[in-house]
Amino acid sequence: xxxxxxxxxxxxxxxxxxxxxxxxxxxxxxxxxxxxxxxxxxxxxxxxxxxxxxxxxxxxxxxxxxxxxxxxxxxxxxxxxxxxxxxxxxxxxxxxxxxxxxxxxxxxxxxxxxxxxxxxxxxxxxxxxxxxxxxxxxxxxxxxxxxxxxxxxxxxxxxxxxxxxxxxxxxxxxxxxxxxxxxxxxxxxxxxxxxxxxxxxxxxxxxxxxxxxxxxxxxxxxxxxxxxxxxxxxxxxxxxxxxxxxxxxxxxxxx
Length: 255
Fold this sequence. Notes:
The chain is mostly beta strands. It is 9% helix and 43% strand. The protein is built from three helices and 14 strands. The strands form two sheets. Strands 1, 3, 4, 6, 10, 11, 12 and 14 form an eight-stranded antiparallel beta sheet that branches. The chain has a six-stranded antiparallel beta sheet with strand order 2-5-13-7-8-9, with no helix packed on it. Strand 11 and strand 12 (199-205) form a beta hairpin. It starts with 7 loop residues before the first helix and ends with a strand.
């Protein structure tokens, strides 16, 4: 089991998507982003500026120019193919104070896949825990499968993924605005809402955080039920070929 192992005109649509993300659920609708919310525009040339670090495994992260909007600085992430069981990685990592069950997190970014990029077997966002007591960094992951988004929960010991409820697909050659809101919790107290270009493509309730109950079924280890790390980019490439994407306007917000 895996567990045990501003340019105002261009960004107007993204701002509307942010507002839409805040409207999910009555509690979130009445909340505001916490004071430690983050927004990375990649306007600075510094690699990984403002993030805790850049995670690379046969990968690279470099500044680049937006192919559709000249003058806009973005990040180009390149992740090598899966080799000998190890995936390629190229992503940015944000660390934050541990959040327990009941916390609501909003994660957003814009993605551009160059033509020819396989829109399959890619993980684009992770909400994990690096200090829970397991060295597998358990958490939930936003996964791209045949152009559609799903939430993989295998690293917290849950076999069933949150599948897309609307067949809205990502495509190459255009910018996509991606928003993922997660309520940390066990059972019906947990929730995951995924929006693609402002449209809800997945809204599901279920466990979204590592729980002691699940861990105790397999080992005698005490764990913390929390999250403390956000990753965005190509957090895993399971394809037999190198994958590249562009990234811009990354946001992290605790509601």
